[in-house]
TrEMBL record:
Protein name: DNA-binding transcriptional regulator NtrC
A GO biological-process term: phosphorelay signal transduction system
Localization per record: Cytoplasm
Record organism: Alterisphingorhabdus coralli
Lineage: superkingdom: Bacteria
Transmembrane segments: none
Length: 465
């Protein structure tokens, strides 16, 4: 009988999981505390541990990996957490977790992961390297970002090539640097190369280096980026802009693990992890003959697609607060964004993505007076066209407000609809009553409801004089 230990202090989640795991023919023991979990692991013969991060007596990930090694307990671990941040995903990876699931999770996906975890030969390769967690600058709790975090956690303990895809400004270099800093190569250098910013005739020299006299202007030996990145990570940003000649030489280097400096005869071994990135469509590049298909397959081993900011609007408040905090660390005054100002920021498309949002928040914080930043202040700093655009996007504003509500709402008890109506109805009545100077007849006319209905609602929300 396969035995599974489930550490979860939420009754509903533990019941659902236990039922699903029992249906697979597995025996499940449930505990709610970290100390009970550890005692059970030492005394029981378990094939898998499924643990939440926040348990009744503390953090379920604190020293979990070290404790399992100390007790010589060799079993796979699946981590669940409602603290859906990159730091949590990295800590799960540091605990040598077989899989990490942010809550709410897909039950079927978790059962599939459990099946793989308890199957002999399915364990992930083990590595004693640690993860430099801490204050990570990648911000967001949306479902799209959770998938990014999960994938980052999976790539840290191997040297496979990573391809970062996404629009400009989505944070591809930040993700590349995070993978390096949190991975087992963090003692080595992180060497970024913006391929698009280097003239095509110089890119091979920049990457592979050259010997003195190799070409006109080569007055000294030049060590290329591949050699500079030895022991660390080479980040090739905007690789879609690389010339075909450079692509051919890059492919040869990746296949052989060796390079030649331009004008040199000596072969030099390379030892760098490759992370590439582009905002372009590779299918179009390959179809038009601008990118080698074999090179694409070589670099596209572990793809990570970063979502556009307009596709994760619910992350904008966290990002705004993060950038406002950064502004303080850079010498600006601490500012607070009012709800209506935040709603305006959430309603915009941000074609420049996170980069544009950061620059805008810095400008707003720097140029706005007072401690509280209001909607008119935001509209003024972003320009008239932005204000006009936002005034015509009521549906986007309501969508953003609903997204923000759902992030905080409790889905237990089936009262979500009533809770949402209350959240919207009360401030609406407050604003209308203020606008009509508390004249109930005018307020009822403006709302388009019967005066008696209005009085009932005012009484319900304790708003009658």
């Amino acid at each position: 009988m396969t035995r599974i230990l489930l550490a979860e202090d939420d009754k509903a989640i533990s019941h659902v999981l236990t039922t699903a795991l029992n249906a697979e023919g597995w025996d499940v023991d449930v505990v709610k505390r970290r100390d009970r979990r550890n005692e059970s692991l030492k005394s029981g013969d378990y094939s898998l541990l499924i643990t939440d991060v926040l348990l009744e007596d503390g953090d379920g990930l604190d020293d979990l990996g070290e404790w399992l090694q100390q007790e010589t307990l060799d079993l796979p671990v699946i981590v669940m957490s409602a603290q859906n941040t990159l730091d949590t995903a990295l800590r799960a990876s540091n605990a040598d977790a077989f899989e990490y699931f942010p809550k709410p999770f897909d039950l079927e996906a978790l059962i599939i992961a459990a099946q793989k975890a308890v199957t002999p030969g399915k364990r992930l390769s083990e590595d004693d390297s640690g993860i430099a967690s801490g204050s990570m600058a990648i911000v967001g709790r949306s479902a799209a970002m959770q998938e990014v975090y999960r994938t980052i956690g999976k790539v840290l303990k191997n040297d496979l090539s990573v391809l970062l895809l996404g629009e400009s400004g989505t944070g591809k270099e930040l993700v590349a640097e995070t993978i390096h800093n949190a991975g087992h190569r963090n003692a080595g250098p992180f060497v970024p190369v913006n391929v698009a910013a280097i003239p095509s005739e110089l890119i091979e020299s920049v990457l592979f280096g050259h010997e003195k006299g190799a070409f006109t202007g080569a007055v000294d030996r030049q060590i290329g980026m591949f050699e500079q990145a030895n022991g660390g990570t080479l980040f090739l940003d905007e690789i879609g802009d690389m010339s075909m000649a450079a692509q051919t030489r890059l492919l040869r280097a990746l296949q052989s693990g060796r390079i030649n400096r331009i004008g040199g005869r000596e072969e030099i071994g390379i030892n760098a992890r490759i992370i590439a990135a582009t905002h372009q469509d590779f299918e179009e590049l390959i179809a038009s003959g601008k990118f080698r298909e074999d090179l694409y397959y070589r670099i596209n081993v572990l793809p990570i697609t970063l979502p556009a900011l307009r596709d994760r609007r619910e992350d904008i408040p966290d990002l705004v607060r993060h950038f406002a905090s950064q502004a303080v660390s850079e010498g600006l005054e601490e500012k607070y964004f009012a709800d209506e100002a935040m709603a305006l920021l959430q309603s915009l498309d941000w074609r420049g993505n996170v980069r544009e949002l950061r620059n805008s928040v810095m400008r707003i914080v720097a140029l706005s007076s007072g401690e509280t930043i209001t909607r008119p202040m935001v509209a003024q700093q972003l320009g008239n066209s932005t204000a006009e655009e936002s005034n015509g996007s009521d549906s986007a504003l309501f969508t953003s407000a609903v997204d923000a509500f759902l992030q905080q709402a409790s889905i237990d008890g089936g009262a979500l609809y009533a809770e949402a109506l209350e959240k919207m109805e009360k401030p609406l009545l407050q604003r209308v009553m203020m606008q009509t100077d508390h004249n109930q007849i005018k307020a009822a006319e403006l709302l388009g409801i019967n005066r008696n209905t209005l009085r009932k609602k005012l009484k319900l929300y304790d708003m009658l004089p």
